[in-house]
């Protein structure tokens, strides 16, 4: 699989390496509690701050999960991500937002996988990125059950037990449970036995044994460090980080794909007030 060939040889986390996953969590929290007008104002007032541009783009991505984005918002978010990536080439979060936007617009793998490679070159176990890719590869979106499960299996086999992606196998199992329940009939009868099977037992035992307790330090996580590519896991190669903007998409085509995925008429001009 294309996504499976993109892991980067990364160095262990040290005291000077930012915790990109924690920063992503904070950006998501800020995007959820601040008004779009504030997010835009911060990006305009502090064009030298990569986090300001990333927050603005993240807010647009978050709103896109509730209301299909107009192509102007999509392009604004992509431009903000490009600005953030230029200001801090080592930060994976602008690329994570790009991945989320491409997922919402149901873009093809030829556009999605290059973004994925840029992310894992910077942070191999970025939680939000893996959740976005899992959703993209699911049968509900642009993949299949086989693709999504193959992705989960590859991550589980390669990631440290306490990596931020540790919950992905459990998430996938819960997803399969709810999917089976929602289908009704014979399929619904297969939902409950999932929890007594070998796979569920292994996942839950691993979580109980390896997941850190509250306040416990997380060990074994690896992230890239400027100038040091000597260590560790895994050994799948990837191109070096690229801070250049992604080529422009075809927004009208992407808009039609998004509306079709949302079950909306092709002629509907859906706008979201990003400045309210």
Can you walk me through this structure?
With 276 residues, the chain is mainly alpha-helical. 55% of the residues lie in helices and 0% in strands. Among the domains are: 19-126, Tetratricopeptide repeat domain (Serine Threonine Protein Phosphatase 5, Tetratricopeptide repeat); 144-212. The protein is built from 12 helices and no strands. Helix 4 (71-87) crosses helix 12.
In brief:
The chain has 276 residues and is an all-alpha fold.
Shape: globular
* CATH architecture grouping of the domain at 19-126: Alpha Horseshoe
- How many strands appear in the DSSP assignment? 0
SSE string, helix = H, strand = E? HHHHHHHHHHHH
Determine the mean pLDDT: 77
Return the CATH topology of the domain at 19-126. Answer: Serine Threonine Protein Phosphatase 5, Tetratricopeptide repeat
The radius of gyration computed from the alpha-carbon positions, rounded to a whole number of angstroms, is 19 Å
Structure annotation, total helices: 12
Could you describe the largest sheet, including whether it forms a barrel? none
CATH superfamily annotation of the domain at 19-126:
Tetratricopeptide repeat domain
Question: Any descriptors?
Answer:
276 residues; mainly alpha; Serine Threonine Protein Phosphatase 5, Tetratricopeptide repeat; 12 helices; disordered C terminus
Layout of secondary structure:
Elements (H helix, E strand, L loop, with lengths): L19 H14 L2 H10 L4 H15 L6 H17 L5 H12 L4 H14 L4 H11 L7 H14 L9 H16 L1 H5 L8 H13 L40 H12 L14
């Amino acid at each position: 699989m294309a996504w499976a060939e993109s892991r980067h040889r990364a160095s262990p986390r040290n005291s000077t390496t930012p915790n990109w996953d924690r920063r992503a969590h904070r950006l998501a929290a800020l995007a959820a509690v601040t008004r779009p007008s504030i997010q835009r104002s911060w990006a305009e007032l502090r064009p030298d701050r990569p986090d300001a541009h990333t927050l603005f783009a993240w807010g647009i991505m978050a709103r896109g999960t509730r209301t299909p984005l107009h192509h102007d918002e999509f392009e604004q978010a992509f431009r903000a991500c490009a600005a953030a990536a230029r200001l801090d080439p080592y930060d994976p979060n602008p690329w994570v937002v790009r991945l989320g936007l491409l997922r919402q617009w149901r873009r093809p793998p030829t556009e999605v996988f290059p973004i994925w490679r840029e992310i894992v070159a910077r942070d191999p176990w970025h939680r939000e990125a893996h959740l976005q890719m899992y959703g993209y590869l699911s049968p509900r979106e642009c993949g299949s059950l086989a693709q999504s499960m193959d992705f989960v299996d590859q991550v589980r086999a390669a990631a440290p037990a306490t990596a931020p992606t540790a919950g992905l196998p459990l998430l996938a199992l819960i997803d399969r449970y709810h999917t089976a329940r929602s289908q009704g009939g014979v399929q619904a009868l297969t939902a409950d036995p999932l929890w007594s099977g070998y796979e569920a037992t292994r996942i839950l035992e691993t979580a109980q044994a390896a997941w850190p307790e509250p306040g416990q330090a997380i060990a074994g996580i690896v992230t890239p460090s400027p100038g040091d590519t000597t260590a560790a896991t895994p050994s799948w190669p990837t191109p070096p980080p690229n801070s250049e903007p992604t080529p422009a998409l075809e927004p009208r085509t992407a808009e039609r794909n998004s509306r079709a995925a949302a079950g909306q008429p092709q002629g509907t001009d859906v706008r979201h007030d990003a400045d309210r």
